[in-house]
Amino acid sequence: MEEGNRSTVTEFVLLGLTKSSELQLLLFVIFLAVYGATVLGNLLIVVLVACEPQLHTPMYMLLGNLSFLDFCYSSVTAPNLLAGFLLQAQTISYRGCVAQIFFFHFIGGIKIFLLTIMAYDRYVAIFHPLRYVAIMNQAVCVGLVGASWVGGFIHSIIQVSIIVQLPFCSPHELDNFYCDVPQVVKLACVDTFAVELLMVSNSGLMTLLGFLVLLVSYSVLLAKLSTRSSEGRAKALSTCASHLTVVTLIFGPCIYIYARPFRSFPMDKAISVLYTVVTPVLNPIIYTLRNKDVQLAVRKLRKRYINSSRYLPSFTTGYIKSTGKVSMN
Predict the structure, then answer these.
(1) Which end of the chain is more exposed for a tag (fewer CB within 10 A), N or C?
(2) Cα 91 to the center of its chain, rounded Å
């Protein structure tokens, strides 16, 4: 009977943020601009870290990875959000829903592990500055980033393996703009207490413990910095404060969503928008775009682009003059 119920599920209906036709067009324009800024800001950082030698350091390598993940993370959910403002009834296939849950938790899990690695990076830089380059060498950084990807995959595959075992009953309506574990589990036509307990342990408890560890770590770092001389302290304090801000923005909503029973609350959709759409566009601003090294890299990249744009017409003109030919198609 359960297998028969599950086999009839071919799609879910996404109820979206609002059904108000007056608000839908306005929200579409706003969130399209936010998503565009997310894509441009995060990909700019990825390009800068890849192309500028001065940013080939462990800290910026980790920030570049975080920016790439923010781009992917927002791209998993933002298209659904935008489509919901334009379509009368938005649906997603069962397989598409499972795939979205997989990539959403895969990327989210990587981000949580990566933020922990970034805290360790700052710890080494502040407490062992003379050994920093030796400890956080390229091989170590690549190994730590690779481990975060493996950890994210394991976390996500556990979520999906539990979801696909559940039978679902009508109606197949998800009260959100994307597929996520809490909304999907609530549609199951079996007792989901054990499933919710497993999910809370896998997502909520892990997120809460990770947040507490990072909070204590950054508190210790800030306390240590406050006792040092003013030389270099301001920059280190600014970096740690930026990291702590992003950690709070990412972990806070995750704890609210996953570290509690899967019940609907009025703030759920607003919190979902915060950590899936808003936070990815804030991370580049908080972390890097206000950083002097990144600002210098942006100016260099822009100057290089302007020079190459000027060089191309002059090269073409010189070639025509030297050959006396103009290609005609």
Answers:
(1) C
(2) 24
